Amino acid sequence: MTAELAPDAGTSVKAKSRPGDRVFSFLSTFSGSLILAILAAVFFFLLFQGLPAFFPDAAENSHFVAGASNLAEPEAEGNFFWYVLPLIFGTLWASLLALLMAVPVAIGVALFITHYASRKLAAPLGYVIDLLAAVPSVVFGLWGATVLGPFVQPFYVWLNENLSWLPFFQGQVSATGRTILTAAIVLAVMVLPIVTALTREVFLQTPRLHEEASLALGATRWEMIKMAVLPFARGGMVSSIMLGLGRALGETMAVAMVLSATGVITFQLTSNTNPSTIAANIALSFPEASNLDINVLIASGLVLFAITLLVNSLARWIVSRRKEFSGAN
């Protein structure tokens, strides 16, 4: 009886192809290609439809672009750049304020769930945080406009009376509380579950041996977190923050319902003069738009698309540098 010879180490053995494998391979390739095709279709639609807004002669016929002259710039009349600049500022400013409020709370909640809370408490708390992501943005907008705004308005008055030497709290205080700071608080609540969930998963993937070694050397729990958990999770934390930023940049209805915008560039947080965001401006202006006004709004959507794509690409690049974060690779 002849013994079968084992294949050489240098030769590759091709697995037998089954119908199920071929179907799965086709569906996977088709799904990945479809995503790229949809992304490219959205980009080219925004580009071709928004292209007329970038030509000064055509943009002069849009009353949206003509309204950019409130920036007190001599060349602002009929210039799309001066129209979209306050919207870019408002989008980035509101998102930055939201992250400043949401990120410390999200990291603290994630640390509490993973390293301090008991198992009976950690699981329900994690479910509650995850459920916040399922709440529609319209609900957050109603809450911010009808509850949060009137609630924080007296606090805005106190800030204006006692801290008016800071440029953030100068100007006429809003009587309704519907300011850029209120919109940022609503965005912070909406971003919180995303940053918390991703950061929690990063913390859970810290090697157990690293934590036990730190504790065995006499470190306290906080010292163990500072030396073993946070350095390991740095890349994942940054990526979760960037993904939360992408969520805040594209939020529409909540900001449109809460913010009482005037379309200017200002750092004042409690006054009745507030910048608008690109998404909120499109939602509020599109129903009454016609002709070139539609092209101007689509062009501003192209700008938002580019900003969001840049933020998410940067987040993915940061995640890819951390091989330990296998959940995102």
From TrEMBL:
What are the UniProt keywords, alphabetically? Cell membrane, Membrane, Phosphate transport, Transmembrane, Transmembrane helix, Transport
This entry's Gene Ontology molecular function terms read: phosphate transmembrane transporter activity
Residue ranges crossing the lipid bilayer per the database entry: 23-48, 80-113, 125-158, 178-198, 248-267, 294-315
Q: Which InterPro entries match?
A: MetI-like, MetI-like_sf, Phosphate_PstC, Phosphate_Transport_Permease
Which GO CC terms are listed, alphabetically?
Answer: plasma membrane
Alphabetical GO biological process terms: phosphate ion transport
Main subcellular location: membrane
Q: Which Pfam families match?
A: BPD_transp_1
Localization (cell): Cell membrane
**Residue stretches making up the ABC transmembrane type-1 domain:** 88-315
List the membrane topology term(s).
Multi-pass membrane protein
Q: Which SUPFAM superfamilies match?
A: MetI-like
By sequence similarity, the record places it as follows: Belongs to the binding-protein-dependent transport system permease family. CysTW subfamily.
* Described function: Part of the binding-protein-dependent transport system for phosphate; probably responsible for the translocation of the substrate across the membrane.
Q: What is this protein called?
A: Phosphate transport system permease protein
Q: Which organism is it from?
A: Pseudoclavibacter terrae
Origin organism lineage: Bacteria, Bacillati, Actinomycetota, Actinomycetes, Micrococcales
